[in-house]
Design goal:
Two copies of one chain form a homodimer. Chain A is α/β, with parallel strands linked by helices and 314 residues long. The first copy, chain A, contains twelve helices and nine strands. Chain A folds into two domains: 172 residues, NAD(P)-binding Rossmann-like Domain (Rossmann fold), CATH 3.40.50; 109 residues, Orthogonal Bundle (6-phosphogluconate dehydrogenase C-terminal fold). In chain A, helix 4 packs parallel to helix 5, helix 7 packs across helix 9 and helix 7 crosses helix 11. Chain A starts with 17 loop residues before the first strand and ends in a 12-residue tail after the last helix. Chains A and B meet through helix 7, helix 8, helix 9, helix 10 and helix 11 of A and helix 7, helix 8, helix 9, helix 10 and helix 11 of B.
């Protein structure tokens, strides 16, 4: 599937792409999406659902949605684009709730970090005539909730779309244009391959970070206050990742089980080899690895993927 | 051991603390130390050694040392403070080289990330009348070499000193004052306890980061360019740590073997439990851990230890 050309001739290069966008969930990702859509004029109106009335109220107060509801089936009526932004484990149930009210010709997408499980759980509920295009913007911060979003979150980051074979090309082009006009870089991928790539670049790192922060917290000989105090030695980077939304990440691991367990097996195997090198004082093995990994950092920096997105300062 | 009071009455609160400071090694830490000493007027002159003539020349060119040499024994003559800033594994050899030329009454310190091994390797070479006070500024970046240093590196970060029992109190107070006047926070600790604390907050995180970056690089199903491209999902944080100086970190692991292996054992045990929870779909175990770790992040941020030190922009 090719990436749409957003030259001036493209019908998607300027103006609104959708009339009404309905966001299911008003947290970090959907909130940022709303701010971006509003800033770039990509839709006439953005409305939102949350199961929590407090979050709906807060999103309305912040102003990134113009209508809000705790009734998902209600809010999707008449929407041209519906974005499921709930934790991955809840997306099937969400799809079942809204299916009957989805407008023919509209597009249903999501922003979950796992794609095969979303295809499995959401797919069967999608009515004939509705374009289902799973998506995953690869960007985030450790903050969550309606206050966490900001328009720049996706800039220079990738958004992976995994449209099933046979998906309507115009619907795909339109959705891809939305992400591109948020200054995101769009890539197409098979859902299964997405899950494997992300298991390496995102899911395993998060699991490891959660684990090490847990291990440090459980030490008897080193107090918790010492761990906090000397976090500047490297630990602090892990605490940032390990502060990510617990519900979202629980669902990621439960819904990308196979790929995560595969990566985890490789990671543990490699770690055991390092452990052995340390025990036997084999400095060459350590030095060689540390030299290889340094090169990868240079490539990550060169690719512009080294920075954690930060909200603009007031 | 108490932290010196730097009120106006203290003799160390203003003016130069040392006449001549000799730095053995002119990389990130010693370079930053030199810049800080010069900025805050903490010594009359700073001189430096490197085994590489190129590094000596570069340090002289940058201007953070006023004299340089590839002869360590030569450069320490007449110095009031000598700072070993070579990788930990080389510190014993360095001490043997310079011992005969250390000035009576001078202070010998180091900036290594491991302290018991430094006490073990350097201690026996220290002549009578020279004050040996091992130290460890807990701050760093992934950059190395003479160009990597900057005066602000230590600001708001801790510097741990591990003077052996019976060390001259005035010498300790003077060295502690040096770090405090670099806006570092000073703490005293037993060398063995230091090594355990740092194994948790720094050594294990680095080892894990090196390992995961290595594992990702070795994947067959996911290409290296995909890993680089989607690093924004969490992996990028690990690449930063895994870009730290290979020689320095090899030496850290080989010289803090016992504590690192102990931490690694606990980490692997905990990771196996997480792996089992994922395999059996036990979301509660995951959710509980992720909720606990999020709290720790808040404490790290509150303690001001969440930021990676960055050189000021030009």
């Amino acid at each position: 599937m090719s990436i749409p050309d957003l030259t001036e001739e493209s019908e998607f290069a300027s103006g609104a792409l959708y009339k009404r966008v309905a966001l299911l969930g008003v947290g970090l990702i959907n909130g940022s999406l709303a701010w971006g859509i509003l800033r770039h004029g990509l839709a006439d109106e953005v409305v939102g659902y949350s199961r929590s009335q407090g979050s709906v109220d807060r999103a309305l107060e912040l102003g990134f949605i113009s209508e809000g509801s705790t009734d998902a089936a209600e809010i999707v009526k008449d929407a041209d684009l519906v974005v499921i932004g709930t934790p991955v484990g809840a997306s099937g149930e969400m799809a079942a709730l809204i299916a009957a009210n989805l407008k023919p010709g509209s597009t249903l997408t999501d922003v979950g970090s796992v794609k095969s499980a979303v295809v499995r759980d959401v797919g069967p509920h999608v009515p004939e005539g509705v374009h289902f295009i799973p998506g995953h913007p690869v960007a985030g911060t450790e903050n969550s909730g309606p206050d966490a979003g900001f328009a720049e979150l996706f800039e220079d980051h990738w958004c992976i779309l995994t449209p099933p074979p046979g998906t309507d090309q115009t619907a795909v082009d339109r959705l891809a244009a939305l992400w591109q006009r948020l200054n995101s870089k769009v890539e197409f991928m098979d859902a299964k391959h997405h899950d494997l790539v992300l298991a390496v670049t995102s899911h395993l790192p998060h699991l490891i970070a959660y684990n090490i922060v847990g291990t440090a917290n459980d030490m008897e000989e080193v107090t918790r206050s010492e761990v906090i105090k000397y976090a500047g030695g490297g630990f602090h980077d892990f605490t940032r990742i390990a502060a990510s939304d617990p519900t979202m990440w629980r669902d990621v691991f439960l819904n990308n089980k196979e790929a995560v367990l595969e990566m985890l097996g490789r990671f543990s195997e490699d770690l055991t080899a390092l452990q052995r090198a340390i025990r036997w004082g084999d400095g060459d093995i350590l030095f060689d690895l540390f030299t290889r990994t340094r090169k990868i950092r240079r490539e990550v920096v060169a690719a512009g993927q080294a920075e954690v997105p930060k909200p603009p300062e007031d």
